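ENTRY TYPE: protein
WANTED: fold as C-alpha cells:
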Amino acid sequence: MSIVRHIETACLDRLLSSRKIMLIYGSRQAGKTTLVKQLGKRSGLKAKYLSADLIENELLLVQRDLKTLTNLTEGYELLIIDEALRIKDIGHILKVFYDEIPQIKVIATGSSSFELANQTAETLTGRKTVFHLLPFALGEVILDKNKFELDQQLEEMLLFGMYPEVFTARVSHKVSLLGEICESYLYRDVLQLTNVKYTLKIRDLLRLLAFQVGQLVSVNELSQTLSINRETVERYIDLLEKAFVIFRLPAFSRNLRKEVAKMDKIYFYDTGIRNYLIDNFKPLNLRTDTGNLWENFVVAERRKQLLFNRRQVNAYFWRTYTGAEIDYVEEGADGLMGYEIKISKEKVKSPKLWQDEYKGGFRVINRKNYLDLLLEGMLQ
C-alpha cells in the first residue's frame, strides 16, 4: 500500500520555488526517507542522496571544506541529506551550501528536532524552511478508503497506532514491528546525541507516562517514583518531546484561584507505542483504559492535522479545582473552542464556568462524529 503524505505537495512547491534549505523533522520510521526520495523524483531535479547513518557520508560532510562540498555536488541540482542531525556542526555545513554553492538545493532530515534546531537556529536564520512528518494521519490513509472503511479500522488504529510500516502490516505482525521501533529506534537519538545519565530511566519514565495518559502529570511524583531529581525528569520529558515520542498539553487558565495552571497532560504521538510500553493490546471492550486511549488518539490526530495544515493554534486542557473540566481546548483566530472527548457519550453539557468566564465554544467528540473534526482540511 502506497500512501501519499499530506505535506508532499507543499514540500514540492516550496522546493521548486525557493532556495531555502528544507528541514524535515519527524521520528524515525515515520517515513522521512520515503518522502524525500519521492520529492527527488517528483521535482525533476537531478538529485544526490546521502544517508548520514553511513559513517563515510558523515566523515565526508563534516570536513566543511568548500572544494570538497563543491566537487561532491557537481552536476547535481538537489542534495538530500537523510538523518542530517548525526553530523557535527550540520548547521554550518548547510550554511556553506546555501551561501557558497547557490546552484544546489538542499533537503535535510532529522528524527529529532533538538539537534538540528540547536545547530541551525542562528546559522540558518532566513535560510531555512521547516516541515514536520509524523506517523500517518487519518487524512492521509482515507485517500485509499472511504469514511465507513476507515471507521471499521478504528479499533486497530487505536491498538496498534499509525506508524507506516505497522499500519500497512498484517495484524499478526504489528506487535513485533512496534517492538522493533521501540527497542531499536525510539530512544536512539536521545541516547546518542545527548548526555543521558540514567538510560534505563528513560524507558521507566515513558512507561509511567503511558499509564497516565489523559491525567494530570506531577513531575514531583515521577521524580520520587524514579528516584531521580525533578530537573532530570523535566529534561528527559523535554528530550522525548523533541524526539517526537510524546507531547505536552498545558493547562488553560485566566483565573489562577479557580483553575489548575501548573500541571500538564502528556500524550503519545502514536497510541501503538503507548500500548507497547504498557504491554496491553487487549480489544477495547476488555480494557479499563479505553477512555484514556481514545482521548490520546483524538488529541494526537488533531495535533498531526494542525501540523500538516500548518495552522497556528494554541492547544490546552481546562480544569478547575472544583472538578469542572474540558479535555481539549484550542485558542485560535476565531476565539476559544472546547472539546470533550468521549468515545460513546453523545450529550455532555458545557461547564457553566467555561460559558460564564470565557464564552467559549463547546463540542463533544465521540465515535459518531470524530472524523468530521479530524479530517477537516485534510481532503483538499
